[in-house]
Amino acid sequence: MARLSFNRNTERRKRIIAVLTMWLDMCVVVSWFLNFLSTSSSLHTYRPRIRSYSLDFYEKRDYVRRLVYDSDESCISQLRMNRAAFFKLCELLENIGGLKSTRNMLIDEQVAMFLYIISHHLKNRVIRHNFQRSGETISRHFHNVLNAVMHLQDHLFRKPEPILANCTDNRWKWFKNCLGALDGTYIRVKVPLADKPRYRTRKGEIATNMLGVCTPDLQFVYVLPGWEGSVADSRVLRDAITRRHGLKVPNGCYYLVDAGYTNCEGFFAPFRGQRYHLNEWRQGYQPTTPEEFFNMKHAAARNVIERREMSFDPIDVNVGENHHNDVVVEEDPIITIDPSDTWSNWRSELANQMFSEWLSEN
User: Fold this and answer.
1) C-alpha dist (Å) from residue 141 to 105, 133, 153, 270
2) Can you tell me the distance from the alpha carbon of 105 to that of 133, in angstroms, rounded to the nearest whole number?
3) Residues 10-59: tens digit of each pLDDT
């Protein structure tokens, strides 16, 4: 009897264990099935968490703050202008160029991005990493700023007007039909080692040769950057007047140039081998020949391009305001730089006339 009772207890324990095992297996299967249903449902109902706009906005602007607003030193280093010039450019692009802020990007970030690209010749992927913007956003805003810059042309570059016969300005009254002055300047650049010989100037600096043209009242007419520093000024000028949208000099008008350029139609150069620079006349020295007097007056007038300042604030200019009524008509412009006896003889006659009038007044 005792043995029979022991066997029954053993069988009962086995059945209990089997039931528990089956129950645990069923729980595992049910749990797996419920997890599967939950995962399948989440694939259709999941919505990404939307970040706070204000938090995301200020996080993305942190790089702009470090580029522009930290100091003038960092702004000049990264954007090639100080903060005052940057703010003025932003205002011009907004008021005149038509540039607008968007929901996700203000004007200053658009302009900073544009300047950063052209200042360092950076790729889209680099800007995308630094500014934390998509490549499409960067490309779109770059072209928006570029279009706005193009709208500034009529406000930053003026149509030249010739000096009239009744001009009373002591510097310019001698040069009738003169449009202004031009000169080249060197801007230091960093180039690959293989390109340094082409960009090395006669002073040994690595720079690019840029041509600047301005009117008698310091308003820029034309700028041509990009030429290598080893290139002569006359070569840059020849390229400027032969371009489709380059410098236009109507026949009968001219610009004052220094002795580094050829004295030819459209470009009035001083006499070589004579006193010329203004500091040579500041010791009380008086001209003794027509050539010296011509050079003195030529240097005083052409010095306008050496100052390289604007005589007006573009922000104060009203959009659509017409500042020039008698604009020079650009028909049949001068496209060659060839010396001629006629031009040289006219310069000599003008020098004699100027010197005679000066002597009679003194």
Assistant:
1) 9, 11, 19, 47
2) 10
3) 777 777 777 777 777 777 776 776 666 555 444 444 343 433 334 455 66
Q: How far apart are CA 86 and CA 89, in angstroms?
A: 5
The per-residue pLDDT for range 228-264, each reduced to its tens digit, is 999 999 999 999 999 988 899 998 899 999 988 999 9
CA dihedral 141, 144, 145, 147 (to 10 degrees): 160
Q: Is the distance from CB of 280 to CB of 296 less than 8 angstroms? A: no
**C-alpha span between 86 and 130 (Å, rounded):** 20
Q: Which two tokens stand for residue 197?
A: 């010989």
* Alpha carbon 290 to chain centroid, angstroms: 43
**Residue 327: how many CB atoms within 10 A of its CB?**
12
Alpha helices in 46-82 (DSSP H): 53-60, 62-64, 72-79
Name the nearest CA neighbour of 305 among 241, 238, 237, 205: 237
Strands 267-268 and 254-256: parallel
* CA-based nearest residue to 289, from 270, 304, 302: 270
- How would you label 181-204 residue by residue, b for 16+ Cβ within 10 Å and e otherwise? bbbbebeeeebeeeeeeebbbeee
Structure tokens at 325: 């009524």
| CB distance 218 to 302 below 8 Å | no
